[in-house]
## 1
Amino acid sequence: MKKLRERLQQVRLEIEEAEREFGREPGSVKLLAVSKTRAAGDVLALAQLGVSDFGENYVQEARAKIGQLSGHSPTWHFIGPIQSNKTRQVAEHFGWVHSVDRIKVAQRLNAARPAHLPPLNICIQVNVDAESTKSGIDPDEVEQLAGQVLPLSRLNLRGLMALPAPTEDFAAQRRAFMKLRRLQERLNETGYRFDTLSMGTTNDMRAAIAEGATIIRIGTALFGPRTR
Ligand SMILES: *Cc1c(COP(=O)(O)O)cnc(C)c1O
């Protein structure tokens, strides 16, 4: 618990410093704690320390934690690849999905979003590296997919997400995030109202904040190295 508290303080400090360094509005970068593979007790401890948003990649694993943290009512974000047969559970138990990269998944989420819940917040995941093995849609195809997702009334299309290939080179990190930011700016010029750029992990959060991230997804810096 003590360690978690110190790590959280450190991450919050780094966010504040990067906001200042790169001329971002104080408080404009939201910390999403990526809790995949982490024990529910640690996740609960972070919630008790004031973290309000958690990211999970696996539905089965997430559901147990969602149950155990229900007293804190955090916002749950689904950030992993989505299988079509899991869309109902995702639509019922999460507030956000960052990893939409095909229309079929968006349609299924839209159909399954329960009427008593607000529309499901959606980011389109973009493959800014053009690495064919990774998830995410090609940048050239984002506008078409956005046009198909926008009319789905149980979804609220909020913006774009990327998970670029890891590199230690700060300039290269910024180039990848700049692509996502520019893509979003172009779409907003054509009439979209995107307010979310979900980008940056433990390794590249400073570059992401420099390029306009509004949500950074941090696992390792909060919980320590993942063992699985
Ligand atoms: C695991 C994961 C993260 C967190 O990565 P860390 O390096 O542990 O901060 C962020 N985004 C996605 C999509 C992930 O799968």
## 2
Amino acid sequence: MSGHEEEFVAEAFKTNWIAPLGPNVDGFENDLAKYNNIKHVAALSSGTAAIHLALILLGIKENDEVLVSTFTFSATINPIIYQKAIPILIESEADTWNMSPKFLEEAIIDRLSKDKKPKAILLVHLYGMPAKMQEIMEISEKYDIPIIEDAAEALGSKYDNKALGTFGELGIFSFNGNKIITTSGGGALVSDNKEYIDEARFLATQARDNAPHYQHSHIGYNYRMSNVCAGIGRGQMMVIDKRVQQRRAMYDYYNECFSQIEGISLLEEPSEHFFSNRWLTTILVNKEKTNGITREEIRLKLEEENIESRPLWKPMHLQPIFSVYPYYGDSLSDKLFEDGLCLPSGSNLNDDNLTRISKALDSILS
Ligand SMILES: *Cc1c(COP(=O)(O)O)cnc(C)c1O
């Protein structure tokens, strides 16, 4: 917390704006619009809700195909299933760990040859690292398939100095408890297209027609953010730049720790076009070079020291519930899942914590 959240929340109580919507929701939406340089924002109950609405706005229906990153958290892909649509899983490339432009185009060509034109590209900026947006935008234009950006982990990240989430037709953010800023739970849908965001607000408040009584001609959802949660968000937006700095400093610290250790690599920004918020610092363990020490041994040894770390996301094509869907790739993310580890990266880690972690890593690996 920044210390300012309670002022906004107290204001909500003082003015009795406890209901969904209210001045904090408007204020938080404005903060997000300004910060990301995007015209329209709808604050919602979660990032997952934002993805669901994005799919609905693009008209995704039963049996439609959606091209989606396989290397992600399940919340990216679940809303495709809510719509009874079909996820077409696309493997990552090694430079950013995000959707591979090569496999994306291969998949599109193959789907077209089967007379199934995919309706949308749902790409993820995992761990805050920007996907290869220029290449993916070119493919999106060439085949006329709109993009939804899942920037749940990437608030504060940029590609070519432009905020992630603002390249596609629609973008989404998450403010769940584990993200770089939080509203305890929440999300946002963003777009430069006013019609999308107006429609999203309508659908997110039970799709009530303009009438004095309760009248409905669409299926609605209860997906809006509450004015209390948005108050937390406004306090958090006061420190977003500081949080990005802290996370990037953490990456630099770990990078320095591992500079003398063989067999551990960090994910670098591939060029000056990429600016990551470094939501989490992640490493890959090459056991050929660590005297046989594996990712899992490192994780368990850290756990013995009461230091929590986690494997990278398990890709969707390896998940029991999603493995039935078409997959295009070379199994790169199988390898990332096997060898990758997320290190402690919270904004509240102090110097003593970091020293303890680096000493533990040093003794495991040397
Ligand atoms: C957290 C997350 C989501 C979902 O956001 P919620 O606010 O938790 O619903 C979606 N995609 C990715 C990549 C995430 O990390």
